[in-house]
Specification:
The chain is mainly α and 197 residues long. The chain has one domain. It has nine helices and four strands, in the order H-E-E-H-H-E-H-H-E-H-H-H-H. It has a two-stranded antiparallel sheet. The longest helix is centred in the N-terminal third of the chain and has 31 residues. The termini are far apart.
Length: 197
């Protein structure tokens, strides 16, 4: 309960503080390319519940389910504005909406698309999906250069499923096992420090 109250307070304050930035991003995205401001995609949340995540759109608009569900460095689908937004992680700011709605938390395992959750073992699925997914977590910090790693792979999707995903799941499971208010504060501080630097 304390974690949820903390999430709601910080998400509300965050949306208030970032409102001018979000307005500028929305206008910039609309002027740059046709399509919606937000990219909405189905993700798997707590206890396997499906929700539609909010992200500022950084790619050319495509119907839901079309194309790869992972992004590699230099992806031709990324718009001009999208490169700037992704480089500065501004697309993730919109997920404060999902935190306020209760679909996500500030800190927790990053939510995956159903396609990749299908690769979870039953034990890992039960553990990782026992908490709300988050905007940041240890795996997000460890694999913040994931797009570049995938760009160097001969088969990006296979690299993701067989190499990166198992490592991310191990970090996510470890977080769930040791999560506390102070570990969340530490991860938020680390994330903020990385973004600023």
């Amino acid at each position: 309960m304390a974690k949820r109250i903390f999430d709601m307070i910080i998400a509300s304050l965050g949306l208030l503080v970032f409102a001018p930035v979000m307005l500028v991003l929305a206008v910039w995205i609309k002027l740059d390319s046709p399509g919606p401001v937000f990219f909405r995609q189905e993700r798997v949340g707590r206890f396997g519940k499906i929700f539609r995540i909010h992200k500022f759109r950084t790619m050319t608009h495509q119907p839901q389910g079309k194309g790869l569900q992972i992004t590699v460095g230099g992806d031709s689908r990324i718009t001009k504005v999208g490169h700037f937004i992704r480089r500065n992680k501004l697309d993730e700011v919109a997920q404060l909406i999902d935190v306020l709605k209760g679909d996500m938390s500030l800190v927790g395992p990053r939510p995956e698309v159903p396609k990749y959750v299908a690769h979870y073992s039953p034990e890992m699925r039960e553990r990782v999906l026992s908490v709300r997914p988050g905007i940041t977590d240890p795996a997000s910090l460890a694999f913040r250069n994931e797009n570049d790693l995938l760009a160097r792979a001969s088969d990006p999707e296979r690299e993701y499923v067989e190499v990166i995903l198992p490592k991310k799941l191990h970090l996510a499971a470890d977080y769930v096992e040791k999560a506390s208010f102070w570990t969340d504060i530490r991860l938020i501080a680390q994330t903020a420090r990385i973004l600023v630097s």
